[in-house]
Here is the input.
Amino acid sequence: MDPTARISDRIEGWAQGDAPKTLGSLIELFGEKSFAVIFVILLGVPALPLPTGGATHVFEVIAVLLSLELMAGRDAVWLPRRWRQMELGGPKQQRFVNALLKLIRWLERFSRPRLSSAFEHRLSNFVFGLLVMLLSIGAFVAPPFSGLDTLPALGAVLLSLAVLLEDFAVVATGVAVGAAGIVLEVVLGRAALSGVKQLFSAIFL
Here is the structure.
């Protein structure tokens, strides 16, 4: 596959090709960009308004572990064989990939390389890993079925796409979206906790 092709075209080619639809095949396809691509795939699950079948926490845990690898300075993705063989094919997964491709293609229409040199340093990889880790944890701790995991996960997806597109403007957008999601979690969490305390006070005092 042409390494100069657009990210959306490469992902679509992988999804429609004959190779196994696994995390391992994605790693082999994208090489040094594998961290960013896998973050897009893993965190795209909670970021998109699609049925997930309870898989989001597993994907968020994997994303955190990969973030730690990136922060430790690894250039290549390492995953246990069982995780590398995780299947991403099937009808449900295909609907997810199609929805993700729409987001990526929309972004590619407006994106262009901005401050590309900022993405070429080991420090930038560390910061990228740290931000994705924090946003993945933010998505993980969101109350189940609340939808509050969407914004932190979307922020991480945008950050990862920014690395792939080498567009610092998308970095800023991803950070803003992810931070807004975490702030919303904190505000609503405090409000819910305050409401519970008032309810118990009214009942037992």
Notes: The first helix runs from residue 7 to 16.
